[in-house]
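Loading example: each entry is read as two labelled lines plus one structure line.
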Amino acid sequence: MITKAGVKSLTIVQAVNDALRTMLKEREDVILLGEDIGKNGGVFRATEGLLEEFGEERVVDTPLSEAGFTGAAIGMALNGFRPVVEIQFLGFIYPAYEQIMTHAARMRARTRGHFTVPLVIRAPYGAGVRAPEIHSDSTEALFTHMPGIKVVCPASPYDAKGLLIAAIEDPDPVLFLEPMRSYRAFREDVPEGKYTVEIGKGKKRREGDDVTVIAWGAMVPVAMKAAEEAEKKGIYADVIDLRTLYPLDKDLIAESVQKTGRTVIVQEAHATGGLANDVLAVINDTSFFYQKAPVERVTGFDVPVPFFAYEDDYLPTPARVLHAIEKVMNF
Amino acid sequence: MELDFPMVQVLNEEGAIVQPAYREQITKELTMSMYRHLIRTRMVDRKCVSLQRQGRIGTYVPYEGQEACQVGSALALNDGDWMFPTYRDHGAMMTFGRSLTQTLLYWKGRTEGCVPPEGKKIVPPSVPIATQLPHAAGAACAEKWKGTKNAVIVYFGDGATSEGDFHEGLNFASVFHAPVVFFNQNNQYAISVPMTRQMKTKTIAQKALAYDIPGLRIDGNDVFAVYFKTTEALERARNGEGPTLIEAVTWRYGAHTTSDDPSRYRDQEESKKRRETTDPIKRVERFMQREGWWDEEWVNQVQGEVNAEIEQAVAEMERYPKANMSDMFDFVFAQPTWTIAEQKEAYLQWKRGMER
């Protein structure tokens, strides 16, 4: 849908598609690999129309083999290509974990920069769409913990396109997490053609002086909703969308939490070992003496992401976030 | 390399027995039992698709067209055997003894659907691809080392043969002569990717050569070929002769899941044509007609009974107590860790506060 010259109103999944199309046009070294991404256009249609436009040599339907095609993509990246692989759901990435952890993420370090792996791994992640079991994981922290790979997680169509293009142009491996629940939830104006959103920079989605709410991916709309509810009670929140999960935007976090002195971090994933703890460490390291209340974390639990009959109780909700906001306000 | 793995049939498309050696064993009683299971699994599958369309269950994985693979192989098992299914094998699971209500609960997103009936070793379906093959190899080794005569069957699709776990599972089982039958349902499509794109080999059976185990290619729409060949492979396993790879060639008529649209990647005419020619149920009907065993009244009665069973199970599923969110905390460890205990308590407290 074209709204004005040079701008299209797109959903997140359409913005991903637009970014891939833009980069396939822009650079001959870009190649897409994954299961059902060609003829089927991807199970979420993220690669719809790309096989027809760019051919089988650039949009490759691979055998059903996450370790195999991720490993092959590492080989292609070593040899001059910019592969973008699609993992159908983040919960199916684990066979490829060794390839990413042991090879993609440390090739540069092992060879003093002689060999590099400019690889992008895209994966829809997260719960909330009543998907079958194992289709709802949000294990971003397994990758933010992994040295040598950047982790990006857009929450909006504009950022999805700009960050994906930045990831493809990045000289190092990037895991690009797409919030499945937000794929078609809303539209946003997205410029046509190439633009980038800088990796490593978060974005303030809402301004307020009382409390800072930090979220990423599918939790950004949850944080925004909670901030709206808080405003009705006279509490004004900064909402920070991290956008990049590794490396964190330390300055943006510090600026906001030093202003408000009260923080709530919203994380869909399990509590222990989650990214919220790293955000907390940033706050501790940069802004300890500004804090007026202990930081609250609203997270999933230390349990496997449950079957969908239980997922409403697993996922952080605006009500839970609001409760945490009130708790830090009333400390 | 062109290798000769001819497709074994016992009952051909016209409903004629083409392997006289099995003639004696194909009694009216066996045939009627097979037929009953076949139409039961088909009727359940169709009901589940319609329940999904009505929003009464979640995303569903249909198997219509593959009933002979699942019924024939499950009926070949002994009560003490193990079953390691995939998400498309609830036909096999039901035939082996999982209740229809449990099947429905699984698709309603309830863990109750993963608990097998007492004494039945039916492991929950593996959702990632091929991961269950090494489990099956290990469970089979354990049976062998315990000195039992129990065997293991593990199901997987054509796409699964591309995963490392396929190779690792078969290799492990072959090294230790594990009593396991690797039952491949080659429905020729891994979601949208046809077999020709999945692998260069012409058959899946020939992959057995690499592990020095028997590889067998059978007509997966021929319930008798499936039943007898699986029985023989299980016998080999029980007798200490090790694993067998069976490739049962079949076809899924419908979508990969209810979220999938197969018209995007294949000609729907093919499925229509196959319904008329190679359907696993039609050929048993033709056989029964040839034998003079076909009894319209009996068929109506069976359909009525299955319908009643389905309606009762649906009612039971819908009457089932609401999902208890405590369940997600309580079954993670034998004893909850302090983190889980605290998280549960804090959440319950907050929830009670919300309800007030």
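Chain B has two domains: 20-322, 324-356.
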